[in-house]
Write a structure and sequence with these properties.
This protein is mainly β and about 210 residues long. The strands form 5 sheets. Strands 7, 8, 9, 10 and 11 form a 5-stranded antiparallel beta sheet that branches. Strands 3-4-5-6 form a 4-stranded antiparallel beta sheet, with no helix packed on it. The chain has a 4-stranded antiparallel beta sheet with strand order 12-13-14-15, with no helix packed on it. The chain starts with 11 loop residues before the first strand and ends in a 13-residue tail after the last strand.
Length: about 210
């Protein structure tokens, strides 16, 4: 940060280019999970994936593939569950973390090995997510416009309405991590909202 120098760590994995890296979460082991939503073209779109990489640029691996537009990604407070929100399916999936960069997989008919934790009714779309200290998953929700708060057992705890349809990102900060910072991409705004509970402290970047 002091010098402003930037270094490219990864552009591909096993010879396959990263097409649309999206969201990221660091773990306690010096690595990070990130989603690759892919690209959408006039008549085709990529199938997305979730990757795990080391912060020092030494290794990257594809962990989950295929996934339909994976976007938000987060870890449970104990680091034992990985959450992935898919945009176009408006589904939140959960994976048990069995080791750094490894997850357990559900058998077919799961399309990507994930356990379906929650699927929103009607036409909605999921974007980024953040986790509360108590384990609730807060998913920025498009079209319906707001933040869907989902419990670790898959129940919709509450829904916080946003003032425009493109409610895209959420993270926690402020005193006691009781402020939610939310992006409204349609109007290009960042808003700060008093939150009823504390957010989960994030692991620092390792490197």
């Amino acid at each position: 940060m002091a010098t402003g120098r930037a270094e490219v760590l990864y552009t591909e994995c096993d010879g396959k280019p990263l097409n649309g890296p999206n969201d990221i979460v660091f773990d306690a082991h010096g690595g990070f999970w990130f989603t690759d939503l892919g690209k959408v073209r006039a008549r085709s779109m990529d199938r997305g994936a979730v990757y795990y990489a080391r912060c020092d640029g030494s290794s990257i691996r594809e962990v989950i593939f295929p996934s339909m537009t994976p976007n938000g990604v987060g870890l449970s407070p104990d680091g034992r569950t990985l959450y992935v929100a898919e945009t176009e399916t408006s589904r939140l999936r959960a994976y048990p973390v069995t080791a750094p960069g490894e997850v357990g997989m559900e058998a077919w008919p799961s399309p990507n090995g994930g356990r379906l934790l929650y699927g929103s009714p009607g036409y909605q779309r999921f974007d980024s997510l953040a986790v509360e200290a108590n384990g609730n998953i807060c998913v920025a929700t498009l079209v319906r416009a707001g933040i869907s708060v989902i419990s670790p057992v898959g129940e919709l705890v509450e829904f916080h309405v946003a003032p425009e349809p493109y409610c895209t990102n959420i993270c926690f900060g402020g005193d006691g991590l009781r402020t939610a910072f939310i992006t409204l991409s349609g109007t290009g705004r960042l808003i700060a909202v008093d939150w009823p509970r504390s957010g989960l402290p994030l692991h620092p970047r390792f490197g």
